Amino acid sequence: MRAFSPYGLSKGLTWQMFRYYCSQAGVPLGKFVIANPFGPFEEPRFTAYLMRMWKSGKAASVKTPDYLRDNIHVDLLSRLYVQFAARVQGLGAGFAKISPSGYVETQGVFAQRVAREVRARLGWDCELELVRQEDFSEPMRRANTDPAAAFIPDWSESKAWDAFVEFYAGR
Hints:
Blueprint: H1 6-25, E1 29-32, E2 36-38, H2 46-55, E3 60-62, E4 68-73, H3 74-89, E5 95-98, E6 100-101, E7 103-106, H4 107-122, E8 128-130, E9 141-142, E10 146-147, H5 157-169
Parallel strand pairs: 1-5, 2-4, 3-8, 4-9, 6-10
Antiparallel strand pairs: 4-7
Helix pairs in contact: 4-5
C-alpha cells in the first residue's frame, strides 16, 4: 500500500534497506504487516475508548464510520507472529511476507460488532452514535490481505471475545 504519512514512508524505506542488506548478507528477512490489533493489553485506542464509554453508561461516538479498516484480535495476531517467525528462521536466506487480516469492514460496522459481542456477554447498553464523517484525510481503505484465522485453525473467536470483555470489564 502507498504511504500516506511520513511515518508510513519511513516504514517502507526501512523495509527496503533491510531487504537490500539482508539479501547482500544472505540472511533471512520477514515482513509481518500489522493491521489494527485489539484485545487484552492493546495500546489503548478505539476499542479501549468504546469500552470506557460503555462502562460509564455513555454512548460512544464513532467519528470515522466510513473508513474501511482491518481490526484483528491481538491473540490471533500474536499466535500467527510466532508461527511466521519460525518460518522465517527456517528460510536460511531470502524473505517472506505476510499481511494478516481480521475484520475487514468499516469502522462503523466494526463498532457495531464490538457492541454486539459486549452486549451479549455483559448486558450493557453499548450505545453507539455513528457521526456523519467529515474528515477524509486518510485513505478510505486500509486492509491486509491474508485471513489470519485460516493459518491458526484451533483459534477460537468466541474465546477471544470472552478475553476482550473480561479484560475491559474488570478494569
